[in-house]
Amino acid sequence: MFTLEGKTAIVTGSGRGIGKGIAEMLASLGANMAITDIDEQISQKTADLIRSQGFKAISVPGDVTQLADVKRVVKKTAEEFGSVDILVNNAGIMGLQSFTDITLDEWNRMLQVHLTGSFLFSQETIPYMKQNNGGKIINIASNWGQRGEAGSVHYSAVKAGIIGFTKALAREMAPHGILVNAVAPGPIETDMIEEEARHLHTTADQIRSNLTSKIPLQRLGTVRDVAVSIAFLAGETGNFYCGQVLSPNGGEVMM
Ligand SMILES: NC(=O)c1ccc[n+]([C@@H]2O[C@H](COP(=O)([O-])OP(=O)(O)OC[C@H]3O[C@@H](n4cnc5c(N)ncnc54)[C@H](O)[C@@H]3O)[C@@H](O)[C@H]2O)c1
Hints:
Blueprint: E1 8-12, H1 17-28, E2 32-36, H2 40-52, E3 57-59, H3 67-81, E4 86-89, H4 104-131, E5 135-140, H5 143-147, H6 153-173, E6 178-183, H7 191-199, H8 204-212, H9 223-234, E7 245-246
């Protein structure tokens, strides 16, 4: 239906989980991929995997909260592939605590990884997109940012912030042909489920069943469910989308 041949994409937090699935999907559509993650080993592993599938990928590890790292990732990507056309701000951390237990450090880290990370990567890539008279920025929000989740106020707040960031940046960048949109997934089957289970001293199956009970389609989402939404926005199919929030969530939130 469309190709990303000749386009270069950066996906943050693409060492594992949803980001890795997005990177594999965009690579399979022809994009040159820059894999970046705070964890150098998994960043390299994803890049190796994509190359072994016959597609183009480099690993440029870095912390999305550190300006020097972000500058290095974007510069290395542009040097390697010529420019940057697509940015997916995906890197994230989870937080499950009662509101009164959230420390100031945890609150600040949540803001830094999700909001500051998206701010820095967008600022550093936009000049390349302006030079190309266009580009795509896709920010990963969450259904919890749309409806709010008890026991995750800091995460819900930053994900709602990502939606505001997306809409404001979309208006400012539209005259430059840079289309900014968000994808707000519902609960997705990733390593986060096992981590949540350990954190809450329960089983992964218990978590799955609690989450599924709120979803009209009666299943968790897959990484592929999210990756195809990103591909849709990144490709020609997304060329009339500006400041929108796509919500692959099985019907949990209906807007
Ligand atoms: N899993 C879900 O159910 C779900 C639902 C809605 C939204 N999301 C969002 O999707 C995105 C990906 O989530 P996931 O489930 O794949 O999580 P994950 O923990 O499996 O992957 C997140 C990746 O981000 C990386 N990362 C964390 N902090 C970083 C930093 N400072 N700099 C660079 N990389 C960093 C991690 O190393 C990891 O590889 C996140 O933004 C998350 O909030 C997830």
